Amino acid sequence: MDTTTILMIAALMALAAALYTSVGHAGASAYLAIMALFAVAPATMRPTALVLNIIVASLTTFRFVRAGQINPRLLLLFVLGAVPAAFVAGGISLPGDSYRPIVGLVLWIAALRFFWPTPLGSIDAPKPPPPILAIGSGAGIGFLSGLTGTGGGIFLSPLILFFGWESVRRTSGTSAAFILCVSIAGLAGNLSSVGGLPRELPYFMAAVVVGALIGTRLGLSILPTGRLLHALGCVLVIAGAKLIFS
Asked: What pTM was computed for the model?
């Protein structure tokens, strides 16, 4: 990659990290979208997105834990199903022709998350899910996450909020910790893919750390980010279309 391309990708990743972490996510779907727009090879996309996810999710989880915005019991139930499933799926290597449309669909689902109606956030009396349902849901999310190189937050947060299992703030914190566990499991399931990491990775890592520091500050300060998230949703729709129809 030339210097201009590296700087453009790093800047977009920093912006994505800021936006995603403001709602407790780590940004893997956005990193995949950005790399797709710049025609990065599929073999490079998944491990890169997971490594960046682990870095961002670690920082995000730490800050939400300090603020007391995580539900440990709910997290444990989801992780029990998600971690082994993500580990198994992480070892499955899909050919480019199969990987692109699957990731494209994941990006479209992620876009729907950011166009989600705001009333979902007003949960006053959350009720915990049955353990079997939570573990099973975690397994399904974990498998898809390991297969595509995402952390699963784009699926977990809407699920928790839709069924009223937790308040919006603690949903964000719980999702951040879930993403960290699933991303580590997905990468561990296919350590050989680390060989496909780009030389430019340190620049991308620095960019997402800066973005995460800003985003978690915004998220914990309850700063409205609706318009920015809608814009990010549009980017995901475009990138998903590029992957599916290319």
From this structure: 0.82
Nearest-angstrom CA–CA distance, 177 and 99: 26
- List of residues 6+ apart from 141 with CB closer than 8 A: 78, 82, 85, 152, 155, 156, 159, 182
* Measured distance CA(142)–CA(155) in Å, rounded: 10
Residue 124 neighbours by CB under 8 Å, 6+ apart: 167
Q: Among the residues of the chain, which ranges form H helices?
A: 3-21, 28-37, 42-66, 72-90, 96-114, 131-148, 153-163, 168-188, 201-220, 226-245
Could you read off the pLDDT tens digit of each residue along the chain, which spans 246 residues?
A: 889 999 999 999 999 998 888 777 888 888 988 998 898 888 888 889 989 999 999 999 998 898 888 999 999 999 999 999 999 988 887 777 777 788 888 888 878 767 765 554 445 678 889 999 999 999 999 998 888 888 888 788 878 877 889 887 788 889 999 999 999 998 888 777 777 788 999 999 999 999 999 888 876 665 555 666 676 677 778 778 877 886
CB 85 within 8 A of CB 146: yes
Rounded to whole angstroms, the Cα distance separating 56 from 61 reads 8
Alpha carbons 23 and 159: distance in angstroms, whole number:
14
Count the Cβ atoms, other than its own, within 10 Å of residue 110.
28
Cα 177-73-130 angle, rounded to 5 deg: 115
